[in-house]
Amino acid sequence: MQRIAVDMDEVMADTLGELLARYRREQKTSITKDDMQGKWLWQVLPPKGQELIDSYLLSDGFFEEIPVIEGCQEVLLRMSRRYQIFIATAAMAFPSSFHSKYRWLRRHFDFLSPQNFVFCGDKSILHADYLIDDMPRNLASFQGEGILFTAPHNVNTTGYRRVSSWQDVDAMFLG
Amino acid sequence: MQRIAVDMDEVMADTLGELLARYRREQKTSITKDDMQGKWLWQVLPPKGQELIDSYLLSDGFFEEIPVIEGCQEVLLRMSRRYQIFIATAAMAFPSSFHSKYRWLRRHFDFLSPQNFVFCGDKSILHADYLIDDMPRNLASFQGEGILFTAPHNVNTTGYRRVSSWQDVDAMFLG
């Protein structure tokens, strides 16, 4: 059975959407993902803004409130019958997020075994056939085939097969 | 550069020693590791005892107090100059331990990058040349070469190269 590792932020969890929603509420601005095409968050926010974003990421329970990206639950459930699914999330930059991320996964993906959760940093440690991730640097060091999940910051990245929604993932792996 | 994944409990951290020390203090008994050769903890404790052990494992900050196994710091430091060292610990059974384990690693192994920490369940996900671990089932599913680190429960296990101390690890990888 082939094994697929799936990243969490921006692939399963709309972390950027939640960060921007908080930022808009607190700063009375109108910034959306549309303002970020081809850019990282730090390139479109003032320095003070980046500090605020970091404070959200560090705040207790932030990760538990993040919405699931549309279609992810249904497609992953069906994929889990045909593939070994591992969830591989970069958690080491925000150690206070470990437990929140674990609870989020248990709540929204109760059909996945926690034995298949991996909280890591450098994703070159993953032994899997595929990695679905929005971060080009994670795909670059991964040993299997990296599949790029579209996020504002990576719209200009080339060199990987790309999916822009869970419908695309469905078509690629179950179609 | 070859990559070595290193388990935490019973390899870097004397978790069993700390559990038994607490148990002796609370229960006024004299059980030691010598009473456990070839056995798991649940085989030598009464059912109530196993419940107590679980309560220690679940208690806040338990993992932060565990002593480092002798020689581990010095040998890993020297190994980190010749190999890529990743720390791979089974943390999913005790999600409340994540942050404690992270802090323990940072305090005692500040020369290792958190990018090389992996909190996981099933260790077959690790992409490494070697895994040093006390659990035969982790070595069985690992894709590289598994090196068995001696612990009371595994003294009768065969089929792997065995190390019984960090001096042995030193001799195997740096000798």
Give your account of this protein's structure.
The structure is a homodimer of 175-residue chains. The first copy, chain A, has 175 residues and is of the alpha/beta class. Helices cover 36% and strands 15% of the residues of chain A. Chain A contains 7 helices and 6 strands. Chain A has helices spanning 15-27, 41-44, 47-58, 72-79, 98-108, 136-141, 166-174, and strands at 3-6, 84-90, 117-120, 130-133, 145-149, 161-163. A 6-stranded parallel sheet of chain A has the order 3-2-1-4-5-6. In chain A, α1 packs across α3 and α4 packs parallel to α7. Chain A is globular, with a radius of gyration of 16 Å. The interface between A and B is medium-sized, with 29 and 29 residues.
Number of separate strands of chain A: 6
What is the overall number of helices of chain A?
7
Please bin the fraction of helical residues of chain A.
25-40%
One letter per element, helices H and strands E, the order of chain A comes to: EHHHHEHEEHEEH
- In terms of DSSP E residues, the strand content of chain A is 15-25%
Average pLDDT over all residues of chain A: 95
Q: Please name the two chains that share the biggest interface, counting residues whose Cβ lies under 8 Å from a Cβ on the partner chain.
A: A-B, 29 and 29 residues
Radius of gyration of chain A: 16 Å
Question: What is the end-to-end distance of chain A?
Answer: 17 Å
Unreliable spans of chain A = none
Oligomeric state? homodimer
Largest sheet of chain A: 6 strands, parallel
Structural class of chain A: alpha/beta
Shape of chain A: globular
Sheet with the most strands: spatial strand order of chain A: 3-2-1-4-5-6
